[in-house]
């Protein structure tokens, strides 16, 4: 892989990971049409996703830090409640238990955990299917058309007001399922999850935050599962630096796109991305039969 190819794919990753047009779909199309060889693709894919994670951490660093702190406090409170449980059993007392989820950040942490479970299960079960789907233009093309429909539905969704305290765990489960299904190339992860959030009645700004913070455990989990494949792949040391350049571009472009998405969702401008997905989807499907 050349530096130019790495930069190009890094920019594509940064744009399509956060704008609702499917990063996996575009990368699959680019690699199928232009036959770009990544010489250790698993490592390169991981580095690109780490780059986009950096963008999420930069934009939402305050929220993420607060969530980490509350997660630690929750773990401490759970241990305290376990101690209370055994004391009550042994000494026949009625000591009070601490309430675990008592603020918005703690509720947000639990919601992310609830959403991550179905995402992880679907990701593990459907890994081979996703890999096979990326080798053709047909599946990404069809999924891009589906993404376009979801984006139009998101624009038509009623104005929601749900913040963490109002969001139900059933909502969280549904959003997690949507993210799991969006591992198919051509189905935009951000578009699918944000659309699901909006249709569940979440506040528009919070829907974007939920979607992007939810991507953190999903991307990290996928990276962990791919480590064994990375170790098994022959990788030239000269390529590592080139991969890193692509990751930097993914991070910078990703940061800009997250900020852009906040404006897009607030102003209900998903329809323009829907039209784009329809065009690229048709082109990909046509390419499948013509190339």
Radius of gyration: 21 Å
Order of helices and strands: HHHHHHHHHHHH
Indicate the overall shape: globular
Content-based structural category: mainly alpha
What does this molecule look like?
This protein is mainly alpha-helical. The protein contains 12 helices and no strands. The mean pLDDT is 87.
Give the secondary structure arrangement, pairings included.
Layout: H1 3-18, H2 23-34, H3 41-59, H4 61-91, H5 104-125, H6 127-133, H7 138-156, H8 169-181, H9 189-199, H10 204-232, H11 237-266, H12 270-290
Helix pairs in contact: 1-2, 1-3, 1-11, 2-7, 3-10, 3-11, 4-5, 5-8, 5-10, 7-9, 7-12, 8-9, 9-10, 10-11
Descriptive key words:
mainly alpha; 12 helices; globular; about 290 residues; single chain
Précis, in short:
The protein has 291 residues and is mostly helical.
């Amino acid at each position: 892989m050349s530096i130019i190819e790495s930069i190009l794919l890094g920019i594509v990753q940064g744009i399509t990971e956060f704008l609702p047009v499917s990063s996996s779909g575009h990368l699959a199309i680019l690699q199928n049409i232009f036959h770009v060889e990544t010489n250790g693709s698993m490592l390169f894919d991981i580095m690109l996703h780490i780059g986009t994670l950096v963008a999420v951490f930069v934009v939402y660093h305050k929220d993420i830090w607060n969530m980490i702190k509350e997660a630690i406090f929750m773990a401490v409170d759970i241990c305290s409640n376990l101690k209370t449980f055994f004391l009550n059993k042994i000494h026949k007392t009625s000591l009070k238990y601490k309430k675990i989820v008592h603020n918005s950040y703690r509720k947000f942490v639990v919601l992310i955990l609830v959403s991550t479970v179905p995402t992880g299960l679907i990701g593990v079960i459907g890994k081979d299917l996703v890999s096979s789907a990326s080798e053709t233009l047909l599946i990404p093309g069809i999924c891009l058309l589906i993404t376009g429909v979801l984006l139009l539905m998101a624009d038509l969704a009623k104005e929601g007001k749900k913040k963490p305290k109002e969001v139900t765990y059933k909502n969280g489960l549904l959003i997690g399922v949507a993210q799991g299904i969006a591992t198919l190339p051509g189905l935009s992860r951000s578009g699918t999850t944000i659309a699901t959030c909006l249709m569940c009645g979440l506040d528009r700004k919070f829907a974007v935050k939920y979607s992007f913070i939810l991507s953190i455990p999903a991307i990290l989990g996928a990276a962990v599962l791919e480590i064994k494949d990375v170790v098994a792949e022959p990788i030239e040391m000269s390529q590592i630096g080139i991969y890193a350049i692509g990751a930097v571009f993914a991070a910078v472009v990703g940061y800009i796109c997250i900020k852009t998405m906040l404006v897009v969702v607030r102003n209900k401008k998903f329809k323009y991305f829907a039209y784009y997905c329809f065009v690229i989807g048709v082109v990909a499907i046509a390419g499948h039969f013509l190339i």
